[in-house]
Design brief:
The chain is of the alpha/beta class. It is built from 10 helices and 11 strands. Strands 7-8-9-3-10-11 form a 6-stranded mixed β-sheet, sandwiched between helices.
Length: 264
């Protein structure tokens, strides 16, 4: 792993039955980058994020994934000390992944479990520092007024911003966001993308976000990685991604939904 890279993926493959979701993918991510992962459904975007965070094992073989200079997994085996590494990686799911019956405050406070211990968290014995961090994070996300509400009573956008607040309380250094705006209306989606961009630019967090909305990727991310059939087919700045390349990635139907002012 190079000194400049905070994440390193080398020759990673993943097979589900007869389908190859990732095929010898190699990618290096530098600290402080904001990367948009794009590509059609089934191209391997979510599989790649889940592999980076060790939520699934890659295929046995030469493939390996490293984070913060240590192994996450190699040769199809997840590292024994991966929990320590995972505590530094926040994961934002498409469906928010909050516990609906718990308050928003408690859901966000759960981000501190790796530091205070599971037992204290289950009993709700949050240290004062955690309580302060939770309220600061909720205020920053614009949802502090909902701290006492059950998560399942909140809108999708409010829940997603709560999930981002949880990553802040976790003190994550890398945030992996898997289709975080797919189920949100345009206004809520913009707020979530603004929040992720703010974490990247103001806090220096490394952010990798998978998006079906290509216009969001081009607008918010300074580096675009495009996947197609499990392979990286583009890796570079948004300005280098032409209309023709996007049509090659998504197919000719992409022209029908291409927005005004897109790259040419």
């Amino acid at each position: 792993m190079s000194d400049a890279a905070i994440l390193s993926i080398r020759e990673a493959s993943k097979t589900f039955g007869q389908r190859r979701a990732l095929e010898a993918v190699s990618l290096e991510v530098r600290r402080g980058e904001m990367i948009g992962l794009i590509g059609p459904s089934g191209s391997g975007k979510s599989t790649l994020l889940r592999s980076i965070s060790a939520l699934q094992a890659i295929d046995p073989g030469d493939g390996r994934i490293e984070a913060f200079g240590g192994s996450v997994q190699a040769n199809g085996r997840i590292a024994g000390d991966v929990r320590k590494t995972r505590s530094r990686i926040g994961f934002i799911f498409q469906q928010f992944n909050l516990v609906g019956r718990l308050s928003l405050f408690t859901n966000v406070a759960l981000g501190s479990l790796s530091r205070i211990g599971t037992a204290r968290g289950l009993l709700g014995l949050w240290p004062s520092a955690t309580k302060t961090a939770v309220m600061v994070a909720l205020a920053r996300m614009g949802v502090a007024e909902y701290a006492g509400q059950r998560a399942n009573t909140l809108s999708g956008g409010q829940q997603q911003r709560g999930a981002i607040a949880r990553a802040l309380v976790q003190q994550a250094e890398v945030v992996l966001a898997d289709e975080p705006v797919a189920s949100l209306d345009p206004v809520a989606a913009r707020r979530v993308m603004d929040a992720l961009c703010d974490l990247n630019r103001q806090d220096g967090l490394t952010v990798i976000v998978t998006l079906h909305q290509v216009d969001y990727a081009l607008r918010y991310c300074r580096r675009i990685v495009a996947l197609k059939a499990g392979k990286i087919v583009y890796d570079g700045p948004p300005s280098g991604l032409s209309r023709r390349e996007l049509v090659d990635i998504y197919g000719p139907e992409f022209e029908d939904v291409f927005w005004e002012g897109a790259p040419t």
